[in-house]
């Protein structure tokens, strides 16, 4: 009887090993090390717009990330991983990572988004142009920004000083004047944010997603370590450091939202 039990257990273990073997192979399959960096603007409980995400939809998007084992990480960690350049490091540390960024400093970041990320403990990076803060009627105040930064979940980075259209500015200025203007937009934004919020600012999102080689060099000279586009899919180690891709998000939910992140989530499920 005892011998029969032992034999049964041996057979059972062999069957389990056979079942698990293909899973182990799948687990060792190289994973595309892209990291989605999501880009948002505004939030509203009921109204949608091209750059306004309804808060119930945002909640569904965050649910989707959680269900699919994505971990929302601070943007600075993504940049660290990308600059490390190692595909292995990306796979080991941030293979399932996603970052959330929000441009422009609309007041709904405080009234709508902030309570949600506090409840869910989700880190977010805000790209801010300081000329609007405590000034434009639609914008956040310095007090709101300071409160959010204090929470430890919100990182504030630069979106230039007053959100210019660099293409237009280039067309209407002399080349020397344009160069000085670009430098001023990059440096003044950074120094103002650092002075007002006491936090390090070394990342930049390009206004209107306008990027060219001169602007990328200017960002590097101004002391930024990374700058972000407003399109382009997942960021990978070979992505240009001053034109890192992001994924604009609107009101996609469920599979449509998942499709936005597809390059990084195209991991084959076990057979
Ligand atoms: Zn913007």
From TrEMBL:
<dbReference type="GO" id="GO:0016810">
    <property type="term" value="F:hydrolase activity, acting on carbon-nitrogen (but not peptide) bonds"/>
</dbReference>
<dbReference type="Pfam" id="PF01522">
    <property type="entry name" value="Polysacc_deac_1"/>
</dbReference>
<feature type="domain" description="NodB homology">
    <location>
        <begin position="96"/>
        <end position="271"/>
    </location>
</feature>
<dbReference type="GO" id="GO:0005975">
    <property type="term" value="P:carbohydrate metabolic process"/>
</dbReference>
<comment type="function">
    <text>Is involved in generating a small heat-stable compound (Nod), an acylated oligomer of N-acetylglucosamine, that stimulates mitosis in various plant protoplasts.</text>
</comment>
<comment type="similarity">
    <text>Belongs to the polysaccharide deacetylase family.</text>
</comment>
<dbReference type="InterPro" id="IPR011330">
    <property type="entry name" value="Glyco_hydro/deAcase_b/a-brl"/>
</dbReference>
<keyword id="KW-0732">Signal</keyword>
<feature type="signal peptide">
    <location>
        <begin position="1"/>
        <end position="27"/>
    </location>
</feature>
<dbReference type="InterPro" id="IPR051398">
    <property type="entry name" value="Polysacch_Deacetylase"/>
</dbReference>
<dbReference type="InterPro" id="IPR002509">
    <property type="entry name" value="NODB_dom"/>
</dbReference>
<protein>
    <recommendedName>
        <fullName>Chitooligosaccharide deacetylase</fullName>
    </recommendedName>
</protein>
């Amino acid at each position: 009887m005892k011998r029969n039990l032992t034999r049964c257990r041996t057979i059972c273990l062999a069957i389990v090993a056979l079942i698990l073997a293909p899973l182990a192979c799948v687990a060792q399959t190289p994973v595309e090390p892209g990291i989605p960096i999501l880009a948002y603007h505004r939030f509203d409980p009921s109204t949608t717009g091209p750059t306004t995400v309804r808060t119930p939809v945002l909640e569904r998007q965050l649910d989707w990330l959680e269900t699919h084992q994505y971990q929302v990480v601070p943007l600075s960690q993504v940049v660290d991983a990308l600059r490390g350049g190692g595909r292995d490091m990306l796979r080991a540390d941030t293979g399932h990572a996603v970052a959330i960024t929000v441009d422009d400093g609309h007041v709904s970041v405080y009234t709508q988004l902030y309570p949600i990320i506090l409840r869910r403990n989700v880190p977010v990076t805000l790209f801010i142009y300081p000329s609007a803060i405590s000034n434009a009627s639609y914008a956040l105040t310095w007090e709101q920004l300071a409160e959010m930064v204090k929470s430890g979940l919100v990182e504030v980075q630069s979106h230039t000083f007053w959100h210019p259209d660099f293409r237009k500015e280039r067309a209407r200025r002399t080349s020397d004047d344009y160069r000085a203007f670009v430098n001023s937009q990059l440096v003044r934004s950074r120094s103002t944010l650092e002075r007002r919020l006491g936090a390090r600012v070394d990342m930049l999102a390009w206004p209107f997603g306008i990027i060219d080689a001169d602007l990328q060099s200017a960002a590097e000279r101004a002391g930024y370590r990374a700058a972000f586009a407003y399109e382009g899919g997942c960021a990978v180690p070979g992505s240009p450091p001053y034109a890192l891709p992001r994924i604009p998000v609107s009101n996609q939910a469920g599979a449509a939202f998942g499709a936005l992140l597809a390059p990084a989530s195209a991991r084959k499920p076990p057979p």
